[in-house]
Each structure stands twice: as structure tokens, then as C-alpha cells.
Amino acid sequence: MLTISNLHAAYGKVEVLHGISLDVPKGQVVTLIGSNGAGKTTTMRAISGMIRPKEGTVSLNGKDVTGLDSHRIARAGLAHSPEGRRVFATMSVTDNLLLGAFPRFTRSRPRGDIRADLERALELFPRLKERQTQLAGTLSGGEQQMLAMARAVMLNPEVILLDEPSMGLAPILVDEVFRIIERLKARGVTMLLVEQFAAAALNVADYGYVLENGRIAVHGPAEKLKNDPAVQAAYLGGGQAH
């Protein structure tokens, strides 16, 4: 579904990713964990076209999308829910969601039943259903995070990139975000998840990769990584159990 091979990425002359490779199979949740500064967000940005890789390939559904503009990668079926949410603050919740479906309105993605998908998204995110007409900028941080995730779902994508969906949220909202990820997984949505709460991410994921200093240090089935003493010592301490 999504295959990254020997990916190198840099900001100016500073190389952040040193040849990483990972696979996100159809219908699975794959998580990328690692400490701050390891290169997790850079990986997401390189996949979705926000920065151009220096080297390597990004393949979506067998199509090479390496280095394409973000809007072309979105049309190919990749949705990115970015770190920091980035909602359209002066637009309503509903209009934010419909913007997520924009490539479907223009027929550059299969159109399907957009209204029915909007209803489904609001059922999946009940907090948003209560606030459909509210301006996105007036939502709480947790509600904005849910809006960013729901907006990604509205593309009806092949793969969703979720970058730090729990960042800055109160514990009760972190739990809700992970419940939503589990519901999306149950619906067969393919996801690549970058998450600071490594234990919670491994609980919901099928497979995991540990990124250290721009390189994949270890990878394997999520259950195996959860029980790996080195991974536990480095990433699963400090009250991150979920």
C-alpha cells in the first residue's frame, strides 16, 4: 500500500533521514516511534510532499509519488493529519470537513457519496457533530485535533498519516483519540501513526518501527516491540502505559 525505500531527507545541508525504509500494508496500522528529534515528523513531511526527499522512493499503491507536490500526492490517495492540527480557523467545522473532500468534488479522486461520508465522520467524532456550525478556531485543542483527523478521513484516502495526534491533549482526550484510531482501524483504514505515547501507539498498531537519529534502529510486530527490553527501557517507561 505505502512503501518507503532508502529515504533521505534534509533541511538545507542538514540531513535528517539517512536512508530509512518501511512498509504500511493495506488495512494495517503501522507506528513510527522514537525520541524528539529522531526524524519522525520529517518522515511524514517527506512522504506527503511537504519537503522533497534527497534520495529514495515513496510508493503509494504501486505508484511512485516521490517528490510530487502535496496536492498531487493527496489526489493519489494519501491524507496527512499534520502535527499541530492546522485547521482553517475562520471556517466552520463542516466546511473544514468538506475541504478534506475537495479532490472528490473536482473528480481527481473517486467522488463516492460525500454527504454520507460526512455523516459517518460526524458519527465517528461526536464532539464535532455538536459543533458543526462553529468556527474551527473557537474549538478546544482536542476538538481541533479531532477535526484534523476527520478532515483526513473525508478524502476517503488509501492511507492516512497521523502525526502526533495526542500532542498537547489532556489525558481523557488522549484516550478518546486512541479510541477513534481503533474505530478507524476496525473500518479497515490504513494508517501510519507517529506518536509520543509509544506504549499507546504499540497497543493500537499491528507493526512498529523505532527511529533513532534518522535511521530505523529496530522494527517488528507491535506485540514483539512492546516486549523488547531495549524498547521498553528507552520508550515505554515514564507512565506511558495505556
TrEMBL record:
Keywords, sorted A to Z: Amino-acid transport, ATP-binding, Cell membrane, Membrane, Nucleotide-binding, Transport
Presence of keyword Nucleotide-binding: yes
ABC transporter domain: residues covered: 2-238
Gene3D superfamilies linked to this entry: P-loop containing nucleotide triphosphate hydrolases (3.40.50.300)
InterPro entries listed in its UniProt record: AAA+_ATPase, ABC_branched_ATPase_LivF/BraG, ABC_transporter-like_ATP-bd, ABC_transporter-like_CS, BCAA_Transport_ATP-bd_LivF, P-loop_NTPase
GO terms, molecular function: ATP binding; ATP hydrolysis activity; branched-chain amino acid transmembrane transporter activity
GO biological process: L-amino acid transport
Organism, scientific name: Noviherbaspirillum pedocola
Superkingdom of the source species: Bacteria
Record-given protein name: ABC transporter ATP-binding protein
Family to which this protein belongs: Belongs to the ABC transporter superfamily.
